[in-house]
User: Fold these one by one.
Assistant:
Number 1:
Amino acid sequence: MSKEDRAAALKVLQTEVAGCTRCKVLAATRTQTVFGVGNITPRLVFMGEAPGADEDKQGIPFVGRAGQLLTKIIEACTLRRGDVYILNTLKCRPPENRNPEPDEVLNCRGFFERQIDLLQPEYICCLGGVAAKSLLNSELSIGKLRKTFHQYRGIPVLCTYHPSYLLRNPEAKRDVWEDMQLLMKRMGIVLPGKG
Ligand code: URA
C-alpha cells in the first residue's frame, strides 16, 4: 500500500473512531477522541493506555506530564517523536482517569488492531500493563512481561512501565532504560557509549 493510501485509510479509521458511541459513558464524557500521532510509516509504535485530561483537550496522545517524559525517553533513544507513531489502547478518556474497563478495551480492540495493521511497524513498545495485556491478550503483570520480546501478529513487542508510573516511582526509570536499550539493540540503533 502506498503512503498516500495508508494515510487515507488511517483517516477513514480516525473518522470512524470519532463517531464511535459503543462505550456510552466514555462517549458522553469525552471532549473528543484521541486517535494517534506521528510517522505513518514507522519502524516503532508506542502504545499507551488511554487519553488523560490534556490529551482529551488537545486530541493528541501523550501531551501531558507523562507525554513529556515519553518524549524524553524517545530522545534518549536518539529518536525524535516524529520518527515514531504513538497511539493508545482506548481512544477516549476514562472519567477521573480510572483504568479502562475490560468491555471498553474489547470495544476499542478492533480500532487499535486495524490501526496497527495499517501502520505495519517493525516493532511495538507497550507502555504499562493495560497496553501490554490488551495487545498480547495476557493476564501477566507488566513486571512479568517486560525485559523480553513477545509477538503480536509476527511483530516483536517489548513491554515496559508506563511513564505515569515513572512519575510516581522515579526509581523504576532504570528498568525502563534497560528495556529501551534492549529494544534499540534489537532495532540496530546504536546508543552513545554502547557501540
Ligand atoms: N497516558 C496514556 O496512556 N496515554 C496518553 O495519551 C496520556 C497519558
Number 2:
Amino acid sequence: MDYQSVIDKIRDEVRELWGQGRVADYIPALAKVDPRQFGIAVATLDGHEYSTGDAQVCFSIQSISKVFTLAMVTRHVGDDIWDAVGREPSGNPFNSLVQLEYEQGKPRNPFINAGALVVTDRLISLYPHPKDAMLEFVRSLCGNDDIYYDKEIARSERLNADRNMSLAYLMKSFGNIRNDVDTLLDVYCHQCAISMSCVDLARAFLFLSNRGVNPFSGKQVLSVSQAKRLGALMLTCGFYDESGDFAFRAGLPGKSGVGGGIAAYIPGNLAVTVWSPELNRHGNSLAGMAALEHFTTDIGNSIF
Ligand code: GLU
C-alpha cells in the first residue's frame, strides 16, 4: 500500500475545510494556535512511517491523554476501575454535569471529563509522582525522551477549570474521588497539556494495534484483553457525543482531543494520527475527522 500518496492526497483535499470550524477558545492558551494547520502520520507494525503536512509540529494532545492514563491505571488495578467508571457512550458533551447527578457520581465512561478525572484520581493514588510517571509512560511508548508538558497550556487550563472542578467536587460528594481536588486538577491539567506531534502519537498508539505490546521495546504494556477493551471503549466513546458518527465514517477505534488531534489505529496493522486545530460543534477536529474517513476509504481497510 502506498500510504505516502494516500496521505499526500488527503492533505490537499482537506484544505477546503479550513475556515469552517473553530479553534477551542475556552482555554485561552489554546485559542492562540494558528488554525490553518494540518498534519497526518502513519506508523505501521512492520516498521514503516509516513507523514505529511504539519506532522512534526507539537500540539496539545488534550483528551487523547485519557487513553494513556487509562492504560496506566488498568494495568495496575485491572477490573476494579469499572466499579468507579462505566463503559457506555454518554451521548452528552464531554464536560456535562447533568448525567453525573442522575447516576450518583459514576461517570458513563473514562473518556468524558468526569470519567477521566476518576481515572486520574486513581493514578495519583498509585504513583508518588504522577506527573513524572505520565511523561515517562508516554516517552517509553513513542521512544522520544523529549515529550514535555506545555506549561503555559497547563496553567491556562488550570485557571479556567471551574467546570472540571465542579465535576470533581460532585463526584467527591458521592465518594468517587479519593484525593484532594486541587491536586487532581493540577495533574489532570498537565496530562491535557502533554505536547506531542502526529509522528510521536502514531508511534505511541502502535502498542494498541500490537495486542498491548510496545513494538519498539517488546514490553507487554497491557494484556491482550486489556488492549481489546481499551480499543472497544475508543470505538464507542472516543469522540464525545459524536462517537457513533466517527465509527460510521472512519470505522476505527480512536480518541480525539480539543487541541484538534485524533489518534486511531487498525489492529494488527498500523496507527494513524491527524492534527488540525479547527473543531466542529462537538469538539472534534473538522479536517481530522474528514481525513480519517478518506484514509480508511482510500486504503480499503478499517476494523470492519
Ligand atoms: N482539557 C480539556 C478539558 O478537560 C480536555 C477536553 C478534551 O480534549 O476533550 O476541558
Number 3:
Amino acid sequence: MTQLIDGKQISKQIKDELRDEVQQLNVQGKNACLAVVQVGNDPASSVYVNNKKKACAYIGIGSKAYELPEKTTEAELVSFVEELNRDETVNGILVQLPLPSHIDEDKIIRTISPDKDVDGFHPVSVGRLWIGEKGFLSCTPAGIIQLLKRSGIEIEGKECVVVGRSNIVGKPMAALLLRENGTVTVAHSRTKNLKEITKRADILIVAIGKKRFITADYVKEGAVVIDVGMHRDENNHLCGDVDFEDVAPHTSAITPVPGGVGPMTIAMLMNNCVETMRTQEERP
Ligand code: GUN
C-alpha cells in the first residue's frame, strides 16, 4: 500500500502547534513581527506574500508588508533592509524573490542580519547548518524533514538521493538529511547514469525543475518519493517533477502536487518566526 503524504494536513498541524506556543509566549510578554518586502508587483510573488501575511495572522504574530516600486535601486533596497535590521520591533525579515534583474539578490540576502534571516538564505545561516550549529533553517528542506518524521519515515542509515543542487533546496536538503544521519548523494543535471543513482534511493527527493521528469524506471520498488517541483501541464493542471501516476504504485510513500511539499514552506517560515520569540526567552 502506498502512503500518500498529506502536506496540507501536516502543515496545519504545525501551524496549530505554533499558534498554541505563540499564545504562551505572548503571556510571557514575547512578541514577534515579520517584515515582508516585495519589490515590483509580480503576480505570483503577490500571492506568496499574501499567504505569508495570512499565516502570520493565523498563528498570532505581527506582520508588516512593504511594497516597493519596481524601479527601486539596489542601493535603496540595501538601505531599506539596513533600516529593518535596526528596527527593534521587527524580528524577522523576508525579501521576496525573485528581485528585478537590476538588483543583485546575493547582495540583498547578505544585507539581512543573520539574527533576522527567517528564510535561512544568509551565508551565516548556511554555514551554521553545515557545521551543526543552531540557526535558521531553509524553509522548504526543513519542511521536508518534518513531512518524513511526521509520516513515521526513518532517515537514519537510509540511502537518500537528492536530485538538484540549488542553494534554496538541493544543498540545504543534503545538509539536513546528513544531520539526520542519512547517507546522502546529491545528483544534478551533469550527473552520469542518473537512473542508476536514483534507483539506489530509499528516500528520493526531487528538485530538478523539470515537469514529470522522474518516471517509474528511476525509482526503486518501495522507495519514499518527495516531489519539490511545481509546474502547469499542457491542460493547465498543477504537476511536479515526478510523474505521479507512473511512480506512485511503486513507492511506499509519496507526496502529491499540489498538497505535498508546497504547504510546508510557509509552516516552517512561521516556525522560524516563532524561533525569534523562543530565543528572546533565553535573554536575561
Ligand atoms: N520566492 C519563492 N519562494 C521563496 C522563499 O521561500 N523565500 C523568498 N524570500 N522568496 C521566495
